[in-house]
Structures are given as structure tokens and as C-alpha cells.
Amino acid sequence: MPSASQPGPAGDPNPRGPPAGHRPTAVAGPSRTEKASRAGGGDAHTRGGGELAPPTPIPHPLRTPGSTVHFGRRGTPACVLAPSSPSSAPSPRSPSPSPSRPRRPTPRCSTTGSLGGTPVAVGDVLTAPLATGTTATLYSSATGTSGIKCTASQFTATVTDNPTAPGTATESVSGQSFDSSTCTSNVLGVTGVTSITVDNLPYSTAAVSDGTLTVTPASGSTIQTTVKLKTLLGSITCVYQAPSLSGTASNTDSSINFTSQAFTKTSGSSLCFSAGYFTAKYAPVTDGGAAVFTN
After folding, report:
1. What digits encode the pLDDT tens for the residues 78-131?
2. Given Cys at both, which of 16, 86, 262, 285 links 292, Cβ 3.0 to 4.6 Å?
3. What CA–CA distance (Å, rounded) separates 53 from 56?
4. Percentages (nearest 5) of helix, strand, coil residues in the chain
5. Residues paired with residue 112 on neighbouring β-strands, in sequence order
6. 161 strand-pairing partners
């Protein structure tokens, strides 16, 4: 085997020895890491067989999994952006619709059950007796106590209009009766009451939302009451008339009140008092048994 200083065969383009004047380059030995790797069978960056393993990531103290670190100048962390998720992503806020409240219908002028209750239907028949413990009176003066009084009376009316409140409900009064067996008189010479009849029916009644009440006769007619009395000299007939009657309605007890409504005697004996003043309280006013209220 030729030595390194011996020239190679003639014609060999690559001489086996270094060319003349060549200065050999020092060959570095294994590094400390390589030595440690050879001694211990590889370090954290090598696998068996010398294959390089991916470096172990070093967690950043300001970074959480899935977050992004933005660095400012000189590698200083400027901010950390937390990972976004569908649950944490802000959603556009839309104004929540306020629950719609059903509009309460406007009450009618006359209702049953309560204020603003069930509207009284046109064509319904309203009835009312005298309020318990009261009397209907026809006295000879507005402040006196001489005349006739009855403990049983009743009126009947049919509803003809019931608009929305505030307004005026109308009825047609088709009947008003007095039980003569419950009537007495303290007029001198009168021994009893034969009958009390309300004439020229029907009458029109206008009930306003403010509680006022007006009773009027048909056009060209008049409100009229005929009273038949027993006297020491026999039976007499007294006729009393009025252009209209005014009253009030109360929701406290569903009542209608008439106080000292003036009548004028138009015919009759001298034993008939010359004027009459009618007072009565009817309650409760009902429609099919349900109390009627004015709205």
C-alpha cells in the first residue's frame, strides 16, 4: 500500500497524497453534546439511531393554551389574546321585544258583574225592586210626610242603546208597578189605597256615564200617574203629571234614586192633594240576575 507521500499511478488525476505545499486542516473532535449523546445513548434532541426529535416547547408564563402572544420591541410581550370560541364570541345584541299586552276593550256605558264588565246587550230587559227597607212615597210637599207610601214597587226597562263609555245608555221603560196591598195613606179622610197606575208608557230613560238619569215621555205625551183612593165618602181618582223625572245611578249598590220629583194634580176630588212629590230608591238594577253598573 503506497504511503501518503508516494505519488499515485501515472495518469491518475487525483494523486493520493496532498499536493505540494498543502497545509493540512485540523479536524475537530466530537463536541461535548455528541460525547454525552454517545455515552448516554442520545439527549433530549435525538432519538435512537441519531434521528433528531422535535424540541420540547417551553411554556410562556403569560400564555395559555390556544392563546396568541404578540411581542413588542426587544421581544417584550405586548399582549396576550385569549382563544376565541363560539361560546365566548360576542354576539350582536338585538333589543328584546317587549311582551305585547292585549288591549283592554273600552267598556260600555252599562255593564254587568263589575265596572268595565260584560256589556249589557241591546234588547236586554232590566228590572229593579225597591231597595230593601225603603218605601216609595208620594207626599203633598217636598219636605212633608203627608201622603201615600208603598213598600213594594218595581220597574221594567228594555235596553235600546249601550255605546262605549263615556256616553249615554238608553232604555225604554215598559212597566212600573206598585203593590197597592203594601200602600197606605195618612191623608185626612182617606181610608186606603185602591191602586196606583203609571200611564202613557213607554217612557225613555237616558243614563249618562256621570250617574245622572233622566226619564222622559214620548213626544207630545207626559209622565202620568193615576191614584185611586178609598175615602169616607167613597172612591176617588187623583191624576198627577210631570214633564220628566230626574234621578241618579249609584254603583255602590247598583241603584237608581228619585228624590222629591214634582207632580202636579191635573184632575181629581178636593180630597186629592194638589201636588205630589215622588221619592223612591230602586235596587239592585239587574240584567238576568246580574247587577248593572254605570261606566
Report:
1. 554 555 555 555 555 655 656 666 666 789 999 999 999 999 999 999 999 999
2. 285
3. 9
4. 5, 45, 50
5. 118, 292
6. 170
